[in-house]
Amino acid sequence: MRTLDQTTQEVVDLASKHFNVPVGSLAPSDDFFKKLGIDSLQALELLSRLENHFGIELPDYEVQGVSDFRTLAERIQSRL
Amino acid sequence: MKNFSGKALRWEWRDGVVELTLDREPANEIGTSLLGELEQFVTAMKSFEAETAACIIHSAQKRGFSAGADLRELYHGAVALPEKERNAGVRDFVERCHAVANAIDAAPFVTIAAVHGVCFGGGLELALTCDIIIADKMARFAFPELRLGLIPGFGGIPRLKRDLGNGFVRDFLLTGRSVNAARAHAVGLVAQLAGEGEALKVARATAAQTTKFDATTRREAKKFIKPIPHDQLRAEIELFCELFSRPTVLAALKDFVERDKANDPMAYLPKSF
Question: By residue range, what is the domain housing residue B235?
Fold first, then answer.
Protein backbone atom coordinates (compact mmCIF):
# COMPACT_ATOMS: atom_id res chain seq x y z
CA MET A 1 0.00 0.00 0.00
CA ARG A 2 1.39 3.38 -1.02
CA THR A 3 1.68 6.17 1.52
CA LEU A 4 0.10 9.53 0.74
CA ASP A 5 3.58 10.98 0.22
CA GLN A 6 4.40 8.27 -2.32
CA THR A 7 1.10 8.81 -4.14
CA THR A 8 1.67 12.57 -4.18
CA GLN A 9 5.14 12.13 -5.65
CA GLU A 10 3.80 9.80 -8.34
CA VAL A 11 1.12 12.37 -9.23
CA VAL A 12 3.75 15.12 -9.46
CA ASP A 13 6.10 12.93 -11.52
CA LEU A 14 3.35 11.93 -13.92
CA ALA A 15 2.11 15.52 -14.38
CA SER A 16 5.68 16.69 -14.91
CA LYS A 17 6.28 14.09 -17.58
CA HIS A 18 2.94 14.50 -19.37
CA PHE A 19 3.04 18.29 -19.53
CA ASN A 20 6.81 18.53 -19.92
CA VAL A 21 7.39 20.68 -16.84
CA PRO A 22 10.59 20.13 -14.77
CA VAL A 23 9.69 17.98 -11.78
CA GLY A 24 11.87 20.13 -9.52
CA SER A 25 9.65 23.12 -10.18
CA LEU A 26 6.55 21.37 -8.81
CA ALA A 27 5.58 21.15 -5.12
CA PRO A 28 2.72 19.14 -3.55
CA SER A 29 0.88 22.31 -2.52
CA ASP A 30 1.09 23.89 -5.98
CA ASP A 31 -2.02 24.85 -7.92
CA PHE A 32 -1.57 22.45 -10.83
CA PHE A 33 -3.75 24.45 -13.21
CA LYS A 34 -1.48 27.47 -12.81
CA LYS A 35 1.82 25.65 -12.43
CA LEU A 36 1.26 23.35 -15.42
CA GLY A 37 -0.57 26.04 -17.40
CA ILE A 38 -3.45 23.72 -18.27
CA ASP A 39 -7.17 24.14 -18.91
CA SER A 40 -10.08 21.87 -18.04
CA LEU A 41 -9.68 19.60 -21.10
CA GLN A 42 -6.03 19.07 -20.26
CA ALA A 43 -7.02 18.41 -16.64
CA LEU A 44 -9.18 15.59 -17.99
CA GLU A 45 -6.15 14.24 -19.87
CA LEU A 46 -4.29 14.23 -16.57
CA LEU A 47 -7.21 12.47 -14.91
CA SER A 48 -7.17 9.71 -17.56
CA ARG A 49 -3.44 9.32 -17.19
CA LEU A 50 -3.70 9.09 -13.40
CA GLU A 51 -6.52 6.53 -13.64
CA ASN A 52 -4.45 4.41 -16.01
CA HIS A 53 -1.34 4.71 -13.86
CA PHE A 54 -3.01 3.84 -10.55
CA GLY A 55 -5.52 1.39 -12.05
CA ILE A 56 -8.47 3.21 -10.48
CA GLU A 57 -11.57 5.07 -11.55
CA LEU A 58 -11.83 8.61 -10.18
CA PRO A 59 -15.15 10.29 -10.98
CA ASP A 60 -14.52 13.91 -11.94
CA TYR A 61 -17.04 15.14 -9.36
CA GLU A 62 -14.68 13.79 -6.70
CA VAL A 63 -11.95 16.12 -7.91
CA GLN A 64 -14.27 19.08 -8.38
CA GLY A 65 -12.64 22.10 -6.79
CA VAL A 66 -9.33 20.27 -6.29
CA SER A 67 -6.42 22.25 -7.68
CA ASP A 68 -3.31 21.11 -5.76
CA PHE A 69 -1.31 17.91 -6.15
CA ARG A 70 -1.57 16.91 -2.49
CA THR A 71 -5.37 17.01 -2.36
CA LEU A 72 -5.56 15.25 -5.71
CA ALA A 73 -3.32 12.53 -4.27
CA GLU A 74 -5.65 12.23 -1.24
CA ARG A 75 -8.61 11.63 -3.56
CA ILE A 76 -6.60 8.98 -5.43
CA GLN A 77 -5.48 7.41 -2.16
CA SER A 78 -9.11 6.91 -1.12
CA ARG A 79 -9.65 4.80 -4.25
CA LEU A 80 -6.54 2.63 -3.96
CA MET B 1 -18.43 13.46 -54.47
CA LYS B 2 -15.89 10.95 -53.16
CA ASN B 3 -13.46 13.52 -51.80
CA PHE B 4 -14.13 16.80 -50.07
CA SER B 5 -12.21 19.31 -48.01
CA GLY B 6 -14.17 21.92 -46.08
CA LYS B 7 -13.66 24.29 -43.20
CA ALA B 8 -14.58 21.87 -40.44
CA LEU B 9 -14.07 18.42 -41.93
CA ARG B 10 -12.90 16.49 -44.98
CA TRP B 11 -13.45 13.06 -46.43
CA GLU B 12 -11.51 10.79 -48.71
CA TRP B 13 -12.73 7.60 -50.40
CA ARG B 14 -10.25 4.87 -51.21
CA ASP B 15 -10.67 1.16 -52.03
CA GLY B 16 -14.18 0.89 -50.61
CA VAL B 17 -13.44 2.79 -47.38
CA VAL B 18 -14.29 6.44 -46.77
CA GLU B 19 -12.48 8.33 -44.02
CA LEU B 20 -14.30 11.32 -42.56
CA THR B 21 -11.88 13.56 -40.67
CA LEU B 22 -13.27 16.12 -38.23
CA ASP B 23 -10.93 19.08 -38.11
CA ARG B 24 -12.31 22.19 -36.50
CA GLU B 25 -10.37 24.01 -33.79
CA PRO B 26 -10.21 23.79 -30.88
CA ALA B 27 -11.99 20.46 -30.28
CA ASN B 28 -14.46 19.83 -33.12
CA GLU B 29 -17.32 21.61 -31.38
CA ILE B 30 -20.51 20.92 -33.33
CA GLY B 31 -21.95 24.22 -34.51
CA THR B 32 -23.47 25.36 -37.78
CA SER B 33 -20.24 25.00 -39.81
CA LEU B 34 -19.49 21.42 -38.76
CA LEU B 35 -23.17 20.44 -38.98
CA GLY B 36 -23.47 21.96 -42.45
CA GLU B 37 -20.54 19.91 -43.69
CA LEU B 38 -21.83 16.75 -42.01
CA GLU B 39 -25.05 17.33 -43.97
CA GLN B 40 -22.97 17.55 -47.14
CA PHE B 41 -21.34 14.26 -46.20
CA VAL B 42 -24.60 12.37 -45.67
CA THR B 43 -25.88 13.73 -48.98
CA ALA B 44 -22.67 12.65 -50.73
CA MET B 45 -22.87 9.20 -49.09
CA LYS B 46 -25.73 8.29 -51.42
CA SER B 47 -23.47 8.63 -54.42
CA PHE B 48 -20.83 6.17 -53.18
CA GLU B 49 -22.68 3.89 -50.74
CA ALA B 50 -23.08 1.07 -53.25
CA GLU B 51 -19.32 0.71 -53.64
CA THR B 52 -18.44 1.42 -49.98
CA ALA B 53 -17.77 -1.25 -47.36
CA ALA B 54 -16.84 0.96 -44.43
CA CYS B 55 -16.59 4.49 -43.14
CA ILE B 56 -14.18 5.67 -40.45
CA ILE B 57 -14.97 8.85 -38.54
CA HIS B 58 -12.02 10.33 -36.67
CA SER B 59 -10.51 13.63 -35.60
CA ALA B 60 -7.39 15.50 -36.66
CA GLN B 61 -7.62 17.73 -33.59
CA LYS B 62 -5.16 16.88 -30.83
CA ARG B 63 -7.65 17.42 -28.02
CA GLY B 64 -9.95 14.68 -29.11
CA PHE B 65 -12.80 13.36 -31.18
CA SER B 66 -15.21 16.17 -30.24
CA ALA B 67 -16.01 18.21 -27.13
CA GLY B 68 -19.69 18.28 -28.19
CA ALA B 69 -22.05 21.04 -29.21
CA ASP B 70 -20.60 24.49 -29.76
CA LEU B 71 -21.97 26.05 -26.58
CA ARG B 72 -20.51 29.47 -27.37
CA GLU B 73 -22.32 29.60 -30.70
CA LEU B 74 -25.48 28.14 -29.16
CA TYR B 75 -25.51 30.78 -26.43
CA HIS B 76 -24.71 33.79 -28.63
CA GLY B 77 -27.24 32.64 -31.24
CA ALA B 78 -29.92 32.13 -28.62
CA VAL B 79 -29.58 35.46 -26.79
CA ALA B 80 -29.71 37.36 -30.07
CA LEU B 81 -33.25 36.13 -30.75
CA PRO B 82 -36.66 36.76 -29.14
CA GLU B 83 -37.84 33.76 -27.09
CA LYS B 84 -40.21 32.35 -29.73
CA GLU B 85 -37.65 32.51 -32.51
CA ARG B 86 -34.97 31.18 -30.16
CA ASN B 87 -36.94 28.02 -29.45
CA ALA B 88 -37.75 27.57 -33.15
CA GLY B 89 -34.07 28.02 -34.03
CA VAL B 90 -32.97 25.42 -31.49
CA ARG B 91 -35.59 22.98 -32.72
CA ASP B 92 -34.40 23.44 -36.30
CA PHE B 93 -30.78 22.82 -35.27
CA VAL B 94 -31.67 19.71 -33.27
CA GLU B 95 -33.82 18.33 -36.11
CA ARG B 96 -30.91 18.80 -38.51
CA CYS B 97 -28.54 17.02 -36.09
CA HIS B 98 -30.96 14.11 -35.80
CA ALA B 99 -31.30 13.85 -39.59
CA VAL B 100 -27.51 13.58 -39.93
CA ALA B 101 -27.25 11.08 -37.05
CA ASN B 102 -30.05 8.91 -38.44
CA ALA B 103 -28.46 8.86 -41.89
CA ILE B 104 -25.08 7.74 -40.52
CA ASP B 105 -26.78 5.23 -38.21
CA ALA B 106 -28.64 3.71 -41.17
CA ALA B 107 -25.72 3.76 -43.62
CA PRO B 108 -25.59 0.49 -45.57
CA PHE B 109 -21.88 0.09 -44.89
CA VAL B 110 -19.98 -0.47 -41.62
CA THR B 111 -19.32 2.71 -39.67
CA ILE B 112 -16.41 2.99 -37.24
CA ALA B 113 -15.62 5.84 -34.85
CA ALA B 114 -11.89 6.05 -34.06
CA VAL B 115 -11.83 8.05 -30.85
CA HIS B 116 -9.04 9.76 -28.95
CA GLY B 117 -9.09 12.43 -26.26
CA VAL B 118 -12.42 13.96 -25.34
CA CYS B 119 -15.61 12.48 -26.71
CA PHE B 120 -18.27 14.50 -24.94
CA GLY B 121 -21.91 15.38 -25.49
CA GLY B 122 -22.71 15.80 -29.18
CA GLY B 123 -19.34 14.24 -30.04
CA LEU B 124 -20.30 11.08 -28.19
CA GLU B 125 -23.70 11.17 -29.87
CA LEU B 126 -21.95 11.20 -33.23
CA ALA B 127 -19.75 8.27 -32.18
CA LEU B 128 -22.85 6.39 -30.99
CA THR B 129 -24.32 6.50 -34.49
CA CYS B 130 -21.42 4.28 -35.57
CA ASP B 131 -21.54 0.49 -35.52
CA ILE B 132 -18.16 0.15 -33.81
CA ILE B 133 -16.30 2.52 -31.49
CA ILE B 134 -12.54 2.03 -31.29
CA ALA B 135 -10.90 4.07 -28.54
CA ASP B 136 -7.39 5.20 -27.78
CA LYS B 137 -6.68 4.14 -24.19
CA MET B 138 -6.50 7.83 -23.19
CA ALA B 139 -9.97 8.65 -24.59
CA ARG B 140 -12.62 10.01 -22.25
CA PHE B 141 -16.41 9.92 -22.62
CA ALA B 142 -19.18 11.99 -21.01
CA PHE B 143 -22.68 13.32 -21.35
CA PRO B 144 -22.32 16.50 -19.27
CA GLU B 145 -25.61 18.04 -20.50
CA LEU B 146 -27.44 17.80 -17.18
CA ARG B 147 -25.16 20.47 -15.71
CA LEU B 148 -26.67 22.84 -18.30
CA GLY B 149 -30.19 21.84 -17.35
CA LEU B 150 -30.52 19.77 -20.51
CA ILE B 151 -30.44 16.23 -21.76
CA PRO B 152 -28.29 15.10 -24.69
CA GLY B 153 -30.23 16.31 -27.73
CA PHE B 154 -28.64 14.69 -30.79
CA GLY B 155 -29.96 11.17 -30.18
CA GLY B 156 -27.62 10.20 -27.35
CA ILE B 157 -30.01 8.68 -24.85
CA PRO B 158 -31.95 6.37 -27.20
CA ARG B 159 -28.72 5.15 -28.79
CA LEU B 160 -26.99 4.65 -25.44
CA LYS B 161 -30.05 2.70 -24.19
CA ARG B 162 -30.06 0.67 -27.39
CA ASP B 163 -26.48 -0.41 -26.86
CA LEU B 164 -25.86 -0.59 -23.11
CA GLY B 165 -27.34 -1.76 -19.82
CA ASN B 166 -29.41 0.56 -17.68
CA GLY B 167 -27.04 0.40 -14.70
CA PHE B 168 -24.35 2.24 -16.61
CA VAL B 169 -26.70 4.43 -18.66
CA ARG B 170 -28.36 5.96 -15.60
CA ASP B 171 -25.11 6.45 -13.66
CA PHE B 172 -23.45 8.02 -16.70
CA LEU B 173 -26.33 10.38 -17.53
CA LEU B 174 -27.50 11.34 -14.07
CA THR B 175 -24.06 12.10 -12.63
CA GLY B 176 -22.68 13.70 -15.81
CA ARG B 177 -19.36 12.11 -14.94
CA SER B 178 -16.74 11.30 -17.51
CA VAL B 179 -15.37 7.79 -17.88
CA ASN B 180 -12.09 6.57 -19.25
CA ALA B 181 -11.62 4.23 -22.17
CA ALA B 182 -11.12 1.16 -19.99
CA ARG B 183 -14.48 1.69 -18.26
CA ALA B 184 -16.16 2.46 -21.58
CA HIS B 185 -14.75 -0.78 -22.94
CA ALA B 186 -15.82 -2.77 -19.87
CA VAL B 187 -19.46 -1.63 -20.19
CA GLY B 188 -19.57 -2.24 -23.95
CA LEU B 189 -19.60 1.34 -25.18
CA VAL B 190 -16.21 0.81 -26.77
CA ALA B 191 -15.70 -2.28 -28.93
CA GLN B 192 -11.92 -2.23 -29.19
CA LEU B 193 -9.18 -0.52 -27.19
CA ALA B 194 -6.15 0.84 -29.00
CA GLY B 195 -2.77 1.96 -27.73
CA GLU B 196 -2.07 5.66 -27.39
CA GLY B 197 -2.23 7.30 -30.82
CA GLU B 198 -3.22 4.01 -32.50
CA ALA B 199 -7.02 4.22 -32.78
CA LEU B 200 -7.06 5.22 -36.45
CA LYS B 201 -4.62 2.46 -37.37
CA VAL B 202 -6.78 -0.12 -35.58
CA ALA B 203 -9.89 1.33 -37.25
CA ARG B 204 -8.28 0.98 -40.67
CA ALA B 205 -7.46 -2.68 -40.00
CA THR B 206 -11.04 -3.25 -38.85
CA ALA B 207 -12.43 -1.48 -41.91
CA ALA B 208 -10.23 -3.59 -44.18
CA GLN B 209 -11.69 -6.74 -42.63
CA THR B 210 -15.26 -5.62 -43.40
CA THR B 211 -14.47 -5.23 -47.09
CA LYS B 212 -14.12 -9.03 -47.36
CA PHE B 213 -17.83 -9.75 -46.90
CA ASP B 214 -20.76 -9.75 -49.28
CA ALA B 215 -22.34 -6.28 -49.39
CA THR B 216 -25.96 -7.48 -49.21
CA THR B 217 -25.29 -9.73 -46.21
CA ARG B 218 -23.38 -6.97 -44.47
CA ARG B 219 -26.22 -4.49 -45.00
CA GLU B 220 -28.96 -6.90 -43.90
CA ALA B 221 -26.99 -8.06 -40.85
CA LYS B 222 -26.53 -4.47 -39.77
CA LYS B 223 -30.22 -3.66 -40.13
CA PHE B 224 -31.09 -6.78 -38.13
CA ILE B 225 -28.74 -6.17 -35.19
CA LYS B 226 -28.95 -2.37 -35.03
CA PRO B 227 -32.52 -1.11 -35.33
CA ILE B 228 -32.92 2.66 -35.11
CA PRO B 229 -35.14 3.72 -32.14
CA HIS B 230 -37.15 6.29 -34.12
CA ASP B 231 -39.97 6.76 -31.57
CA GLN B 232 -37.55 7.44 -28.72
CA LEU B 233 -35.51 9.76 -30.91
CA ARG B 234 -38.65 11.83 -31.63
CA ALA B 235 -39.48 11.90 -27.91
CA GLU B 236 -35.94 13.07 -27.16
CA ILE B 237 -36.30 16.04 -29.52
CA GLU B 238 -39.53 17.10 -27.80
CA LEU B 239 -38.05 16.80 -24.31
CA PHE B 240 -34.86 18.62 -25.29
CA CYS B 241 -36.81 21.53 -26.82
CA GLU B 242 -39.11 21.72 -23.80
CA LEU B 243 -36.15 21.84 -21.40
CA PHE B 244 -34.26 24.32 -23.57
CA SER B 245 -37.12 26.82 -23.36
CA ARG B 246 -36.54 27.34 -19.61
CA PRO B 247 -34.54 30.38 -18.46
CA THR B 248 -32.25 28.18 -16.34
CA VAL B 249 -30.70 26.78 -19.51
CA LEU B 250 -29.72 30.16 -20.92
CA ALA B 251 -28.31 31.09 -17.51
CA ALA B 252 -26.22 27.89 -17.45
CA LEU B 253 -24.99 28.50 -21.02
CA LYS B 254 -24.08 32.07 -20.07
CA ASP B 255 -22.17 30.79 -17.06
CA PHE B 256 -20.22 28.33 -19.24
CA VAL B 257 -19.39 30.95 -21.87
CA GLU B 258 -18.24 33.44 -19.27
CA ARG B 259 -16.09 30.90 -17.44
CA ASP B 260 -14.63 29.73 -20.74
CA LYS B 261 -13.91 33.30 -21.84
CA ALA B 262 -12.22 34.00 -18.53
CA ASN B 263 -10.06 30.91 -19.08
CA ASP B 264 -11.65 29.24 -16.09
CA PRO B 265 -9.78 25.93 -16.01
CA MET B 266 -12.91 24.17 -14.81
CA ALA B 267 -15.23 25.34 -17.61
CA TYR B 268 -15.56 21.85 -19.09
CA LEU B 269 -15.95 20.13 -15.75
CA PRO B 270 -19.25 19.86 -13.91
CA LYS B 271 -19.74 22.91 -11.74
CA SER B 272 -21.69 21.41 -8.91
CA PHE B 273 -23.53 18.29 -7.84
Answer: 3-199+214-261
